[in-house]
Design brief:
The complex is a heterodimer of chains A (293) and B (371).
Chain A: H1 2-42, H2 46-51, H3 64-71, H4 83-113, H5 119-131, H6 134-148, H7 154-177, H8 182-190, H9 195-203, H10 208-224, H11 227-232, H12 240-249, H13 257-288
Helix pairs in contact in A: 1-13, 3-13, 4-7, 4-10, 4-12, 5-7, 7-10, 10-13, 12-13
Chain B: E1 4-13, E2 17-27, E3 32-36, H1 43-51, E4 58-63, E5 66-67, E6 78-81, H2 93-103, H3 108-121, H4 137-149, E7 155-159, H5 167-184, E8 187-191, H6 195-201, E9 204-209, E10 212-217, H7 219-224, H8 229-234, E11 241-250, E12 253-259, E13 265-269, H9 274-277, E14 284-289, E15 294-295, E16 306-312, E17 316-318, E18 323-329, E19 332-338, E20 349-355, E21 360-363
Parallel strand pairs in B: 3-8, 3-9, 6-7, 7-8
Antiparallel strand pairs in B: 1-2, 1-4, 4-5, 9-10, 11-12, 11-14, 12-13, 14-21, 15-20, 16-20, 17-18, 18-19
Classes of the chains: A mainly alpha (293), B alpha+beta (371).
The complex binds adenosine-5'-triphosphate and magnesium ion.
The site of adenosine-5'-triphosphate has 13 residues of chain B, from β2 and α1.
Chain lengths: 293, 371
């Protein structure tokens, strides 16, 4: 009696497991399919693409499309590939991420440990920044950049991203620091430490998780930005997202799907890389506030 | 040169919560002040105000005669042990202790000597390379002490620094703190919930309740002449007995009447106190008498001031050095402290001597001490 019951449970258990795994596998494939198609296509020749179907393996693996996408594909009038724009993006992302993270950390520190009259209201207004749609700031920002003489420059784009990202980075750091006991700062005060010493020696060393979260978030946001790039950048300073768009839309002759796919993967690679390298800290950082030591 | 004067200090949080109400405390250079009071009465807030970590709403704080009310914490020359320890999580124990010295630009060798001295004193030498997260509660507390003791400030502020230690270590540390105070002669303000710590360490005790200073005086004053029922009940363990007693004239003398459960009535002669208690004739007052003053052996006080009470023993609680016996007087359970050799069981006839030389009387309505 007991035995058959157990056996039945085992049998059901494995069936359930099997169904769950099948569904998960299906979901994984579903989400990976576009990437697979892109990778396969980017390694095919044009003839191969015309002959086969989307998910067939390349008959012959060639890197021609990658080379062309990187160095000689036409993006509008120029035919120099996406290389220059890739480095444009790097030149925008690196300073913008570092500056906005640093500002966010300082803001969060002041808003939690050096509260001033109205600091909560100040924070409230800053939060507003997280909900302002890109479109709303487009024109005023263009005007501002013009006044500052930063229109169509990399520095201008960096500034736009810093200003826009500040609301998010401040939110992250503020919520992290608010869980750090105030007594730490008080103790450091009595030890004779000042504003920056306390930040540098006491708070920053325990901010690892939230720094990682902020950097991943900002890198992804800024690297993937298209709208600011297309509006505030001109030919020389445009980021890779804009170049990718131009490349795909340059319609002289045949559409080179393999080149398009290669360029698209190049454009997406850095964010993918950041997530793979630091993803586990991202998850850890998001929950770090709840497990203060 | 570090007397501490707290004059008319008020602290209001957020414009409405008044946490400190007109506090006045003044101690001399080198005195040991103990702050006691129930949880939430404002002890930590007062310490923070002295340290300058909270701005006071009103009043003046003087250190060594100098008004520091508006000075920043680092210019007040104060070291503090926080109730929550507040150890720097990213630094190991050695760095935690040396941080303050480093900031104050003390030479490296001097810092090392100092850290080693303090670590030895607090028995944490083997923990110097650990991070705070790798320490037990008691160990963290000792590191927090170490961080304060490594410096030689004008005033030490200790917020329940021994509360997490086991009984043995606690007694050891208490002795160390007493020694330390005697050697350094630094002014200390110390918060505790422990009666024995309070009585043994203090030169002065300040008793607080709901942000109001109830009494400020020497330990003996607080113990023998409490200002009101709250102070009397707060200091001393087991607590003082409070018995509502009618006051009447008997044979031209003022007496207080005590009635046992069996209905026997005793008259306590009020003697000199009668002068003050005269206006309570025909009314009730609250008699306050500590358990150790109701005993089987006569305390060597004035025999005229003692009275023998006969009744039945209630609950009997042996504590080791002495035994606590309950007895009912005027409908109130009264604690008597008798010799452990005085064998008595619940229900047995009980004969005890109440020594009235240290007894006090409180007004029933205001709860203030009359005499
Ligand atoms: N920042 C603050 N804002 C508002 N109220 C506060 C603040 N800090 C403390 N309080 C209140 O002030 C009162 C006194 O707090 P405090 O920490 O001084 O008590 P305490 O005597 O040290 O108590 P304990 O013995 O539990 O440590 C409490 O009622 C507390 O809720
Ligand atoms: Mg406290």
């Amino acid at each position: 009696m007991v035995n058959t019951h157990m056996a039945q449970r085992d049998w059901r258990y494995y069936l359930n497991r099997g169904i769950i795994h099948f569904i998960l596998l299906f979901a994984v494939l579903f989400y990976l399919l576009p990437l697979i198609v892109m990778v396969f296509t980017s390694f095919k020749t044009m003839d191969d693409i015309r002959a086969g179907n989307l998910i067939s393996l390349p008959t012959e693996w060639v890197v021609d499309a990658w080379v062309k996408a990187w160095s000689s594909a036409c993006t509008g009038v120029k035919c120099e590939g996406v290389e220059g724009y890739f480095w444009n993006s790097v030149a925008i992302v690196v300073p913008a991420v570092l500056i906005s993270t640093a500002i966010g950390a300082l803001n969060g520190y002041v808003l939690t440990k050096w509260r001033f009259r109205g600091s909560e209201i100040f924070f409230g207004f800053l939060l507003f920044g997280c909900f302002i749609p890109f479109q709303v700031v487009l024109l005023p920002m263009a005007q501002t950049l013009g006044w500052l003489g930063l229109a169509n420059t990399t520095a201008g784009l960096v500034m736009v991203h810093v200003v826009y990202g500040m609301a998010f980075t401040t939110l992250f750091f503020r919520n992290f620091y608010v869980n750090i006991p105030d007594e730490l700062v008080k103790a450091a005060h009595l030890d004779g430490a000042g504003f920056f010493t306390i930040f540098w020696r006491i708070l920053l060393p325990i901010s690892g998780p939230i720094i990682v979260v902020t950097i991943i978030w900002q890198t992804t946001q800024i690297w993937n930005d298209f709208l600011f790039g297309v509006v505030y950048g001109s030919g020389e300073t445009q980021p890779i997202t804009v170049a990718l768009n131009n490349l795909v839309n340059t319609s002289t002759g045949v559409k080179e799907y393999n080149v398009h796919m290669a360029a698209a993967i190049i454009a997406g690679l850095p964010t993918l890389l950041v997530y793979v390298l630091a993803g586990k800290y991202f998850v850890r950082g998001l929950t770090a506030g709840s497990v203060k030591g | 040169m570090a007397a501490l004067d707290i004059e008319h200090v008020r602290k209001v949080f957020g414009g409405k919560t008044e946490v400190l109400k007109d506090i006045n405390i003044s101690i001399d250079d080198g005195e040991f002040l103990i702050l006691v009071g129930p949880s939430g009465c404002g002890k930590s807030t007062l310490l923070n105000s002295i340290a300058g970590l909270e701005d006071i709403t009103d009043g003046v704080i003087r250190i060594g005669g100098q008004d520091v009310s508006r000075k920043s914490p680092k210019d007040r020359d104060i070291a503090m042990v926080f109730q929550s320890y507040a150890l720097y999580p990213s630094m190991n124990v050695r760095q935690n202790i040396s941080f303050g010295l480093e900031i104050r630009k003390i030479p490296k060798e001097e810092i090392n000597t100092e850290v080693d001295r303090v670590a030895k004193l607090l028995q944490i030498e083997h923990l110097l390379d650990r991070k705070p997260s790798q320490l037990s509660g008691g160990q963290r507390q000792r590191v927090a002490m170490g961080r304060a003791l490594a410096r030689k400030p004008a005033i030490y502020l200790f917020d329940e620094p021994l509360s997490n230690l086991d009984a043995k270590l606690r007694v050891e540390m208490r002795t160390e703190i007493k020694k330390l105070h005697q050697n350094l002669g630094t002014t200390i303000v110390y918060v505790t919930h422990d009666q024995i710590e309070a009585m043994t360490l203090a030169d002065r005790i300040a008793v607080m309740k709901d942000g109001i200073l109830q009494q400020f005086g020497s330990p003996q004053e607080i113990y023998d002449e409490p200002n009101n029922i709250f102070v009397a009940g707060f200091m001393g363990s087991p607590s003082m007995n409070f018995v509502p007693t009618p006051v009447q004239k008997e044979g031209g003398m003022l007496v207080a009447k005590l009635t046992t459960l069996e209905g026997t009535t005793f008259s306590l002669p009020l003697g000199d106190r009668g002068n003050v208690l005269g206006k309570y004739e025909g009314k009730q007052v609250i008699l306050g008498v500590r358990p150790e003053r109701i005993s089987n052996v006569s305390a060597d006080g004035n025999p005229e001031d003692s009275i023998v009470l006969k009744s039945k023993a209630g609950v009997v609680e042996p504590t080791g050095p002495d035994t606590l016996v309950h007895m009912n007087l005027n409908g109130i359970e009264v604690n008597c402290r008798v010799d452990p050799d005085y064998k008595v069981k619940t229900g047995d006839p009980l004969e005890v001597i109440m020594d009235l030389s240290k007894a006090v009387f409180f007004d029933k309505d205001t709860e203030a001490r009359i005499v």
